[in-house]
TrEMBL record:
Record-level GO BP terms: acetyl-CoA biosynthetic process
Protein family: Belongs to the ATP-dependent AMP-binding enzyme family.
Main EC class the enzyme belongs to: ligase
InterPro entries, per the entry: AMP-bd_C (IPR025110), AMP-bd_C_sf (IPR045851), AMP-binding_CS (IPR020845), AMP-dep_synth/lig_dom (IPR000873), ANL_N_sf (IPR042099)
Name listed for the protein in its UniProt record: acetate--CoA ligase
Length: 572
């Protein structure tokens, strides 16, 4: 299929350089209806606006279920159902600022709920349906969630922990077979009770609309808050980096339980009036290529692990599908190997564009601008309006080709507003004067391209998902057989990294494959399904500092057969 896709001119390098020079976020802000005194709310920008113009009858969403049923919604329909939901929630007692969990598989109700909750000024927190009951409980206790929108099977999963969650007022269940009790109501009934004339609540730019939980190297997951004004940067980058236009059909493979799935999966494309495709099912190379063909996807935003899985599925399979509508592919979440970029060139006939950002940054930061020549393996350059660099621990910029901390000058529009009830954690990002410190290590080359080197902390990235070793260790030691545990990320050709656990058993327990399986299953219920250790090793000691902290860096060096470095703090 080489050469069959006509190249589309999407600007040139000069455009990028001019944009960098002349850029002002204020001019982007002017494009929003709120700048004319309209409603300040991302749901209004993404949906309501279109419902009152010709896009009313344009398809906003193709939602494909795991059994391949297709549900279609126009912008007008999403507007109406989400308004009724917002109104129905208000009638149930929900108020501005309440935390509403959306704990659903990737179905149309998930998208509608995100818009509905946002319309009424509450804070949505979409949670991966892969989360286990204890992980759900931790998050609900952290932010005092009052409402939960979920499905019958997920409701069953969290039922055992509900007694501890006294803040929850109502659980709204999608589906007919909901068994209803004191606090449960049916989603359809809430929508039916609502008024489609509900007026979307006008918020302040720095009022949060979403909480995304993410992991660090210490403590439990933290709730990162993003405000309505984040859309300024999300919309700008959806246009300039993802190259989204009115006539595109777009597929973002990220789940809305992850910031990519809300910003670039729902809000920014809908702001631009783009038709989105969502797929509930699991990864399967044939299914994925078929979706690209069948829906004529033009812009595709995905992740390195998925691309590696497609690469492993073989080149021949690609020949079976007509991917000629595809125009632009972007990637995010973990390092995109040069090898994958070259495979994209050769087999997909597209240069895959890497984008670097984080839950905390809320939107793209360092990217391969569409018109930029790409160096395979590099993350690209800072987008216009963002000043990023590589610095030492005092905040001094280091020379090209020198390793340092990937840092950003604070003040970009989509920067997190804070971390729910955890100001100390928030402040840690700004410990170096004048900079936001991302937690990543990188270098810049002579041409200003950024190259990812690793994390400066112990955070693990497995299949693009962020996993905190501390959370996994905490879950492990709750098992009666486990005395102590140390957890690291082990390099893996497919998943980037896998979670590996070193486990010390309590006296009286014998290490066996069966016990490994049991402990693994135990961890799955506490955390998300992706966060369990794919490898476990029973050990008799763990390297610790004199103050008793497990030295993961030593475990990792031993695992990789590398020098263990400075051991002066190791206990005897
Ligand atoms: C971490 C952020 C990325 C938005 C979704 C939320 C790693 C992300 C890249 C990339 C190498 C990357 C970093 C970063 N990461 N993008 N293009 N190349 N590494 O992401 O869960 O908040 O994770 O993911 O380590 O700090 P997140």
């Amino acid at each position: 299929m080489e050469g069959t896709i006509p190249p589309r001119k999407i600007g040139n390098l000069e455009d990028y350089e001019t944009a960098c020079k002349e850029f002002a976020w204020a001019s982007v802000d002017k494009e929003f209806s709120w700048s004319e005194g309209g409603v300040y709310n991302v749901a209004h920008e993404a949906i309501d606006r279109h419902a009152s113009n010709w896009r009313r009858n344009k398809i906003a969403l193709y939602s494909i279920t795991a059994n391949n049923e297709v549900r279609k919604y126009t912008f007008g329909e999403i507007a109406e159902i989400s308004s009724k939901l917002a109104s129905g929630l208000t009638k149930l007692g929900a108020e501005i600022g309440d935390r509403v969990f959306i704990y659903l598989d990737r179905t149309s109700e998930l998208y509608i709920s995100l818009i509905g909750v946002t319309k009424m000024g509450a804070m949505a927190s979409p949670l991966f349906s892969a989360l286990g009951p204890e992980a759900f409980k931790d998050r609900a206790l952290d932010c005092g969630a009052k409402y939960v929108i979920t499905s019958p099977y997920l409701y069953k999963r969290i039922e055992p922990v509900l007694d501890d969650l006294v803040d929850i007022e109502k659980i709204i269940i999608v589906g007919d077979n909901a068994d209803l009790g004191d606090i449960t109501v049916k989603f359809d009934d809430v929508v039916a009770s609502g008024d489609s004339c509900f007026k979307t609540v006008s918020m302040q730019p720095s009022d949060p609309y979403v909480i995304h939980y993410t992991s660090g190297s210490t403590g439990k997951p933290k709730g990162v808050l993003h405000g309505h004004k984040a859309m300024i940067q999300q919309a700008y980058t959806a246009k300039m980096i993802l190259d989204l236009n009115e006539d595109d059909t777009y597929w973002c493979t990220a789940d809305p339980g992850w910031v990519t799935g809300t910003s670039y999966g729902v809000l920014a494309p809908w702001y631009l009036g783009v038709t989105i495709v969502s797929y509930e099912g699991r990864f399967d190379a044939d299914v994925w290529y078929n979706l690209l063909e069948k829906y004529g996807i033009t812009v595709w935003y995905t992740a390195p692990t998925a691309l590696r899985m497609l690469m492993n599925a073989g080149d021949e399979i690609v020949e079976k599908y007509d991917l000629s509508r595809l125009r632009h592919i972007c990637s995010v979440g973990e390092p995109l190997n040069a090898e994958v970029v070259k495979w994209g060139d050769r087999v997909l006939n597209h240069r895959i564009h890497d984008t670097w950002w984080q839950t905390e940054t809320g939107a793209h930061m360092v990217c391969n601008y569409p018109c930029m020549p790409i160096k395979p393996g590099s993350m690209g350059k800072p987008i216009p309006g963002v000043t990023a660099s590589v610095v030492d621990e005092n905040g001094n910029e280091v020379p090209p080709k020198t390793e340092g901390y990937l840092a950003v000058r604070p003040g970009w529009p989509s920067m997190m507003l804070g971390i729910w009830r955890n100001t100390p954690k928030f402040k840690e990002y700004f410990r170096v004067p004048g900079w936001y410190i991302s937690g990543d290590l990188a270098f810049k080359d002579e041409d200003g391209y950024f190259w990812f080197l690793g994390r400066s902390d112990d955070v693990i990235k497995t299949s693009g998902e962020r996993v905190g070793p501390f959370e996994v260790e905490s879950a492990l030691i709750e098992h009666p057989a486990v005395a102590e545990a140390g957890v690291i990320g082990k390099p893996d050709a497919l998943r980037g990294e896998i979670v590996k656990a070193f486990v010390m058993l309590r006296p009286g327990y014998e290490g066996s494959d069966e016990l490994k399986k049991e402990i693994t299953n135990f961890v799955k219920t506490r955390l998300a399904y992706y966060a369990y250790p794919r490898e476990m090793e029973f050990v008799t000691t763990l390297p610790k500092t004199r103050s008793g902290k497990i030295m993961r860096r030593v475990l990792k060096a031993q695992e990789l057969g590398q020098p263990v470095g400075d051991l002066s703090t190791l206990e005897d």
